[in-house]
Amino acid sequence: MFHSLGLSIISIMLSVLCIFLAVSTCCNSGSHSRLRASVPIPNKAQPLVRFNVNGKLKIVQFADLHYGEAPDTDWGPAADIKSRRVIEDALQWENPDFVIFTGDQVTGELMYPNGTDYIHILLTPFVEKGYRWASVYGNHDIGPNLTRLEILQAEQSYGDLCYTKQVRTDLPGVTNYFIPIYAAENDTIEEEQPVMIWWFFDSQGGRNQFGQQPHYIDQNVVEWFRNESQRLRSEWGMLPSLVFFHIPPQEYVTIQDNVLTNQLCDGLLDDDVTPQDNNTGIMEALSEAGGVKTIFVGHDHGNAWCCFYKDIEVCYNRHTGYGGYGTWTRGVRVIDLDIRNLENRTNYVRLETGEVVDNFPRKNVSLRT
Ligand SMILES: [Zn+2]
To answer: What pTM, to 2 d.p., does this model score?
Structure first.
């Protein structure tokens, strides 16, 4: 009897449990569907990047901001406050149409958990004023508590303002992608084609919990660029393009030797070139693809020269932020594009003092054709 009573108790308990599970499943699914209904509709196309109605498009390149360095010291947070002043002044003086970050946005190896907080802090002045941006990551952006993917997710939380992407998860690095650039909107054109392409590569690097990471643009990325640029060329024809990544390729060492002797080259030359560890052929690929006009890098904070590799302009940007090594005057590089004359681009450095320096190509010099 006790035995059958025990069984009855167990069966009652099982029934109660079943009813409880059924109710909780029902309620959970209800709350999920309510949640789902409030999420924005996915796959909404992001607005294209276009020249304005006057045919102009101005980019400001911010390099090596190094936010979040040494957060438990006095000087670390003080540096971030100064970096924000540099950013706000540059935005006010230049009012760009588009912003590009060329790596080392933060000093990730010194981050505590929640390192992405600093991504949000550095993006705040851009988000507040509605500036759109795209970025590549540098060797200092990661650390034991911060991954490239976490940074990407933090950036992408700003929706349409962020154009940073990872187009192929099987490629080493994250920020390997391109943005097609269009003329101002025109109702009379039915099948619109871009007028320009901006390429972004991840030169990787840095140290995380697994140790030192590869410090170069992977050869699979170079191969992807070769194939993709050929595909775009067959679809859209040869388009002028700009290229952005963080660590200079090895060719920059030789190019730096030419800066002082080539009268067409100009800018700040006060730092060593510390190039990518491997030469995976990115410069050759860029040169052979055709259409590549200018390459912009950061990484070596005291270099801000522009010179040439074959027919391609190659430019460094000095550091913009107060984190990271060096005491060179901070600055941003301004790339002023005119759709009527994409063959002849100009760029210059706007220093934190407000002074404009290093116009490139140099004025009053007859350029080679
Ligand atoms: Zn740096």
So the answer is: 0.86
